[in-house]
């Protein structure tokens, strides 16, 4: 046996060896092969490696790892179809290694393997931002990778403290009584975009390549949800951070103007449900967090595909620039709306059968306030993702845009994911049976249906009445990154620039000293003659004979060699 991540990572680096016309097919078949392989692994299967006195376990199979590995491989395959037209080999390699890192993390049985796959994802996902090759994306990608390296540093620090205390590197539930657990949790919180540590996500995702953003929407935050469920389930603080995320993301999504910025903020909101479920720690809540992560990866990928198709065909990405293109993109619009129906919790779509499990789990655990706030956040979900974004992108004011045709593979990729969103909504048991705990939950009950329909109808009415107030505005909404962006020029001036000037001056003086020393060492005789007062050496135009200085140089060298020999003998005594 071998870790299924190895298929994706090795396959990714083999892609440049394929003929150009076969690379897109390889980028689809490789994650599909990993999916088939991981489903053939028996429960309890492990792979262990002895290294530096530790037992590494890059493969450990159970229900939780299998379901996360499955959805990561599914979305990597579907996104590969969506990106078939891309001829950038660098993006194909980076996306596959990134996806392989997510699959590897899901099956990691030891903390060092988990850390390795976390950092692998951080590095290769950064390329998907930089691949647009603009100054703006260069800066955003740099901020993105620095934040993830910071998260990885906290994770590594906590792992080392945990190792020193317990001697164990097994991936297991962490004891909240020790600082090492909280340090690791901070690292996971950064990678999971838990406010106020989240600004890297809405900063980088809208600036990634059109296809790269689809991959990014699926892997990083959901792999962090996996770690929270695996290692930090039952931490009460996560309940309230999750609720805060659900509301915070909704508010900023309503304020955003960039269509992928809206979707990026809503990732924060939806991940909040999963974080809250992990914090609740009950079987119902854990099942809900896992099911919602599975559903979210599908419908959020579909939403990014639909938004990406609009950007690809128009060259516009903001609500204030788009509008009136529905007649050109009817199929793209309705495929997007399947994702919108799913994320909004419409019956017969997968969001309906997963989000409600988390809310029910909060109610069963007697966290009534959390349950009500999560219900409130679901109103905002339909408001901005299901109404505001599609209305002002495809309808609204006609700005005379004539989109070009989207590649056929984009439609196929969206169609595959749209089918899965609908399939799991109609037949939830095909998801429930593979959750970590036995499921005793019926989403299609009268109370849940009535509650959902009421929320959706009143939200639609409110939007229609106030739709002109909810149109996009060409303004910047300040986020928590203001805290470090505002003092950045001052810190740069007094720390970075001042340090640069100091080292530049030192380098220049060093160059002068080195040049002078080189001149002396190249021919030291004139200087030594002057020091020794050799006759005629200072007379203008006096002939110079290098042989005059050689005895003196030889004596000096001899004394140096003798001193070294004596020091060596003394050290041996």
Quick structural summary:
With 573 residues, the protein is mainly α. It is 70% helix and 2% strand. The protein is globular, with a radius of gyration of 31 Å.
Describe the structure.
With 573 residues, the chain is mostly helical. It has 2 domains: 1-228, no CATH class; 233-480, no CATH class. Helix content is 70%, strand content 2%. The protein has helices spanning 4-14, 23-39, 63-82, 89-107, 111-130, 135-166, 179-191, 200-204, 210-231, 236-255, 259-280, 283-314, 330-343, 350-364, 368-394, 408-426, 429-432, 446-466, 482-485, 488-522, 525-532, 550-572, and strands at residues 46-51, 54-60. Strands 1-2 form a two-stranded antiparallel sheet. β1 and β2 form a beta hairpin. The radius of gyration is 31 Å and the shape is globular. The model is unreliable at 536-552 (pLDDT under 50).
Outline the secondary-structure elements:
Elements: H1 4-14, H2 23-39, E1 46-51, E2 54-60, H3 63-82, H4 89-107, H5 111-130, H6 135-166, H7 179-191, H8 200-204, H9 210-231, H10 236-255, H11 259-280, H12 283-314, H13 330-343, H14 350-364, H15 368-394, H16 408-426, H17 429-432, H18 446-466, H19 482-485, H20 488-522, H21 525-532, H22 550-572
Antiparallel strand pairs: 1-2
């Amino acid at each position: 046996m071998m870790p299924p991540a190895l298929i994706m990572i090795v396959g990714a680096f083999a892609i440049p060896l394929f003929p150009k016309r076969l690379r897109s097919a390889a980028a689809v078949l490789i994650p599909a092969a990993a999916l088939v392989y991981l489903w053939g692994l028996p429960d309890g299967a492990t792979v262990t490696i002895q290294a530096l006195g530790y037992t590494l376990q890059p493969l450990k199979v159970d229900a939780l790892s299998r379901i996360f590995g499955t959805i990561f491989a599914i979305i990597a395959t579907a996104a590969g179809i969506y990106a078939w037209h891309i001829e950038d080999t660098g993006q194909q390699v980076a996306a596959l290694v990134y996806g392989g890192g997510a699959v590897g993390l899901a099956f990691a049985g030891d903390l060092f393997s988990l850390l390795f796959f976390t950092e692998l994802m951080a590095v290769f996902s950064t390329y998907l931002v930089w691949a647009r090759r603009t100054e703006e994306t260069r800066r955003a990608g740099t901020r993105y990778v620095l934040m993830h390296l910071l998260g990885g540093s906290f994770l590594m620090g906590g792992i080392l403290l945990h190792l020193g205390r317990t001697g164990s590197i097994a991936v297991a539930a962490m004891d909240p009584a020790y600082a090492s657990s909280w340090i690791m949790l901070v690292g996971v919180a950064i990678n999971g975009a838990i406010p106020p540590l989240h600004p890297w996500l809405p900063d980088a995702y809208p600036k990634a390549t059109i296809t790269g953003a689809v991959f990014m929407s699926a892997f990083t935050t959901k792999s962090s949800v996996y770690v929270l469920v695996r290692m930090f389930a039952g931490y009460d603080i996560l309940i309230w951070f999750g609720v805060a995320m659900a509301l915070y993301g909704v508010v900023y999504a309503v304020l955003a103007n960039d269509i992928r910025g809206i979707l990026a903020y809503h990732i924060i909101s939806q991940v909040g449900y999963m974080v809250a479920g992990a914090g609740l720690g009950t079987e119902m809540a854990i099942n809900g967090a896992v099911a919602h992560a599975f559903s979210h990866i599908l419908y959020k990928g579909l939403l990014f595909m639909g938004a990406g198709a609009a950007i690809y065909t128009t060259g516009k990405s903001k609500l204030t620039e788009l509008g009136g293109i529905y007649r050109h993109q009817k199929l793209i619009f309705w495929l997007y709306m399947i994702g919108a129906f799913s994320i909004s919790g419409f019956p017969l779509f997968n969001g309906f059968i997963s989000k409600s499990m988390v809310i029910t789990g909060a109610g069963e655990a007697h966290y009534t306030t959390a349950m009500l706030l999560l219900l409130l956040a679901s109103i905002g979900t339909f408001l901005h993702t299901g109404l505001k974004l599609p209305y002002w992108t495809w309808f609204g004011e006609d700005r005379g845009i004539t989109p070009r045709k989207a590649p056929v593979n984009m439609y196929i990729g969206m169609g595959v994911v749209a089918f899965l969103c609908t399939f799991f909504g109609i037949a939830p048991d095909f998801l429930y049976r593979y959750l970590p705990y036995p499921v005793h939950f019926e989403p299609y009950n009268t109370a849940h249906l009535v509650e959902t329909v009421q929320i959706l109808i009143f939200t639609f009415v409110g939007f229609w009445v106030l739709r002109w107030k909810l149109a996009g505005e060409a303004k910047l909404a300040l986020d928590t990154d203001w805290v470090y962006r505002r003092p950045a020029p001052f810190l740069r001036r007094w720390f970075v620039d001042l340090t640069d000037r100091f080292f530049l001056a030192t380098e220049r003086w060093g160059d002068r000293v080195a040049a002078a020393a080189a001149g002396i060492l190249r021919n030291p005789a004139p200087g030594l003659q002057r020091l020794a007062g050799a006759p005629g050496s200072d007379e203008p135009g006096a002939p110079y004979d290098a042989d005059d200085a050689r005895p003196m140089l030889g004596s000096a060298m001899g004394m140096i060699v003798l001193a070294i020999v004596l020091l060596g003998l003394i050290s041996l005594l």
